[in-house]
Amino acid sequence: MKNQFNLTKEVIVAFFIAGIICAIIGASINYYLAEMPDSEITNAINHGIGGFISGGISGIAATIITAKKLMRNSN
């Protein structure tokens, strides 16, 4: 039986896994590292920093997951 590789499916799975990672990291950053803001602008900056960090990490995670799947199926 031939093992077919569906890139679209793998990218979607990697996207959801990375999204879960992003949500956990973003919530952790906002809860543990960012203090309760005094103003709306501080709140927006804190969310921006958390989103930037967690988004970058989740993007790297999605790329690594997809690349590993591609390498595994190319052999």
Textual characterization of the structure:
The chain has 75 residues and is mainly alpha-helical. The protein is built from 2 helices and no strands. The mean pLDDT is 77.
Descriptors for this entry?
75 residues; mainly alpha; 2 helices; 83% helix
- Sheet/helix structural class: mainly alpha
Low-pLDDT regions: none
Quaternary structure: single chain
Kindly state the mean pLDDT as a whole number? 77
Specify the number of helices.
2
DSSP summary, beta strand count: 0
Distance between the termini: 16 Å
Shape: rod-shaped
Bin the strand percentage. Answer: under 5%
- One letter per element, helices H and strands E, the order comes to HH
Backbone CA Rg: 17 Å
Helix content: over 70%
Sheet having the most strands: none
Short description:
Helices cover about 85% and strands about 0% of the residues.
